[in-house]
Amino acid sequence: MKEATLKQIATQLGVSITTVSKALKNYPDVSEKTKKKIVDLAIKLNYTPNSFAVNLRTKESKIIGVIIPTVDYNFFSKVFKGVLEEAEKRKYQVIILRSNEKLEVEKKQIELLLNKRVDGIIMSLSNETGDFNHIKNIIKHKTPLVLFDKIAKLVNCSKVAINDRKAAYDAVNYLIKKGHKKIAHFRGSYMPQNSIDRFLGYKKALEDNNIVYDPSLVYLCDNNTDFEDGYENAKKILMEHPDIEAIFAITDLVAVGIIKYFNDIDLKIPAQIAVFGFCNSFMSEIITPKLTTIDQPGFEIGNRAASILFDEIDLKKKNKPVIFQSIELETKIIERDSA
Amino acid sequence: MKEATLKQIATQLGVSITTVSKALKNYPDVSEKTKKKIVDLAIKLNYTPNSFAVNLRTKESKIIGVIIPTVDYNFFSKVFKGVLEEAEKRKYQVIILRSNEKLEVEKKQIELLLNKRVDGIIMSLSNETGDFNHIKNIIKHKTPLVLFDKIAKLVNCSKVAINDRKAAYDAVNYLIKKGHKKIAHFRGSYMPQNSIDRFLGYKKALEDNNIVYDPSLVYLCDNNTDFEDGYENAKKILMEHPDIEAIFAITDLVAVGIIKYFNDIDLKIPAQIAVFGFCNSFMSEIITPKLTTIDQPGFEIGNRAASILFDEIDLKKKNKPVIFQSIELETKIIERDSA
Asked: Where are the alpha helices (DSSP H) in chain B?
């Protein structure tokens, strides 16, 4: 079937092409009666407006790009849901790309999105991202950018995150108040800001409670396979520190790996050892014992990031100045059975 | 910063605009030396090719659309990962939309994608989708379409799914071989083909084993909140059929809801009652007891659907005929501890 053109519709109804075009864009200066006739025929003829041509004129793509490190985690699903919900409201579409936690892939994805002239970009940095020139390049291109979760403090743009340091501090403080002294931290990679901040929160809570920080109690989970990292390090810590009392894990998935190992060897949680997670993902509710964790509001993070981005796109369109925002969303402890 | 144009690059290097354009597209008829000079300057000047202009000429967007019913389930994450992996290889980008299991939203999303002139669409139908005119409209628009998981047998396009009837048959047969006779089915909505087929597989397995089908043992889970549906119906079935021996659930998430309720009331699984899931999602491994389930290869489904779609896009571009494929991927029983 050949596609209908504006001209065809105009000819068939004996009106001008401009009238057809205006009617299809719902301009007020075409009568409702004419509008209805035109729209009905357009539907009948299967007319599709050529968005790319529209794009050239308005310089808008009505598409935003979202770059996430991985599609595996419940957290990013929640974020994505938050982004989608706002995008649906504001009539934007979302291209989703993943960096696979790799700097080189992240660079390539940004380039792709800029080439595609998306109206804006929302992203969480990969674990490898330590310099930010490719991120700054987005800003140089005057493409609105909002960072979330794994952000770069040095990049001048809007950001939506939680206070990772405070959240981690609260978690470790909770473990200490429960009577634990020998508390390990299963930390994330060295690069991401949130991983650094969670580690610093852990350390500060120990210090504020007069517990000497012992670096040998910090285990690195940086294989991008949190579950296995948690499982393997749980095995290791029981050999190296059989008297360990509690573990604060960088993510729920690491915590679930830990619990899985302890369940496998019949170590009682929390009687013999306490486990604290981070995220409040769906699985933290269904595992036995149910995981005590930090609620990281993924949906709100995505929703807020999208809302800020669309506002910045609007301001840019109107040539109005944009003031960048750094939003810090509240976290809270979800008390369950593992600690 | 003003963006560089092809002309600017051409003037600065004293070559023609055509040469610059060809160099940036890596055409073989520009010398490597000239190519390098042009590419270097383009990078220095922050040149971004205007993809939308390119689109008008090539009529390609290099974007495909994926419509999924919901972003909540592990299954769709796996499918999406499979799609992304193939898209990255073939240098396509992916717009992802969700229908929220609503027919009206699904119609709107299709319209958006067709307006955006995506090169192709991959989709799984919503639970409400009973007539298929909007799906057929995609084909009328000559936009390649691949359906997966919740497919419409009546729509003439390529499809990737599993044999839901056989998989369900295998599951119920497994329960019967374990000695169970009074077996319930927690089924999905009435509309989706896969929900119908899983129900028919359940029924057939009973019949083939001379067990009389009892409609009062079939419970409907159609609130799009599988976990709660499973939990609530588990509560209900124990009141209505206290002697029930086993439950075959339409999804892992329903099964996890069932297990959650039985754990809450300390009913022993599988000693007092067996539970069988469907999907083999991550949570089926971490719940206690671990869930016996059907492995539904989500990654392969997405990967295969994308691969077929890109092939069809290529054939269309070359004006070659497309032969639609119906791919049925293998499933298998994952024996764990719940049955």
From this structure: 6-13, 17-24, 32-44, 51-58, 74-89, 103-115, 133-140, 164-177, 193-208, 226-240, 252-264, 283-286, 298-317
Which one of A48, A283, A288 has the shortest CB-CB distance to B141? A48
Q: A–B: how many Cβ contacts below 8 A?
A: 107
Q: Helix, strand, or coil here: A9?
A: helix
In A, minimum Cα distance to B286 occurs at: A287
Per-residue pLDDT tens digits for A158-208? 999 999 999 999 999 999 999 999 999 999 999 999 999 999 999 999 999
Contacting residues of B for A283, CB less than 8 Å apart = 282-283, 286
By DSSP bridging, strand A332-334 and strand A293-295 are: antiparallel
Complex ipTM: 0.72
Can you tell me the distance from the alpha carbon of A198 to that of A188, in angstroms, rounded to the nearest whole number?
Answer: 9
**With contact defined as beta carbons under 8 Å apart, do A294 and A170 qualify?**
yes
What average pLDDT does this structure show over A132-153?
94
CB B310, CB B263: distance < 8 Å? no
For residues A238-259, one letter each, b for 16 or more C-beta atoms within 10 angstroms of the residue's C-beta and e for the rest, the string is: beeeeebbbbbbbbbbbbbbbb
- Is a pLDDT exceeding 90 seen at residue B32? no
Do residue B117 and residue A52 have CB atoms under 8 angstroms apart? Answer: yes
- What CA–CA distance (Å, rounded) separates B81 from B281? 14
Tokens of B258: 């069932």
B276/B247 Cα distance (integer angstroms): 6
Predicted TM-score (pTM) of the model is 0.78
Is the per-residue pLDDT at A55 higher than 80? no
CA gyration radius, chain B: 26
Nearest CA in chain A to B98: A84
Distance between CA atoms of B151 and B135, rounded to whole angstroms?
11
CB contact under 8 Å between B48 and A114, yes or no, is yes
Residue A268 pLDDT: 96
Question: Closest to A115 (Cβ–Cβ): which among B51, B97, B117?
Answer: B51
Among B168, B177, B123, B119, smallest CA distance to B146 is for: B123
Query: Rounded to the nearest 5°, which phi and psi values hold at A333?
Result: -80, 130
Closest CA to B275 of B245, B304, B302: B245
Domains of chain A by start residue, with CATH: 6-49 (1.10.260.40), 59-161+298-329 (3.40.50.2300), 164-295 (3.40.50.2300)
Q: pLDDT class for A151, splitting at 50, 70, 90?
A: very high
Mean per-residue pLDDT, B174-201: 96
Q: Which of B57, B286, B338 to mutate to test the interface with A (most CBs of A within 10 A)?
A: B286
Q: Do B63 and A1 touch (CB under 8 A)?
A: no
* pLDDT exceeds 70 at position A293: yes
Q: Is the pLDDT of residue A152 over 90?
A: yes
Long-range pairs for A322-329: beta carbons < 8 A, 24 or more residues apart: A322/A144, A324/A156, A324/A157, A324/A158, A324/A159, A325/A158, A325/A159, A326/A158, A326/A159, A326/A161, A327/A158, A327/A159, A327/A160, A327/A161, A328/A161, A328/A162, A328/A163, A329/A160, A329/A161, A329/A162, A329/A297, A329/A300, A329/A301, A329/A304
Report CB contact under 8 Å: A288, B140. Answer: no
Return the SS3 of A199. helix
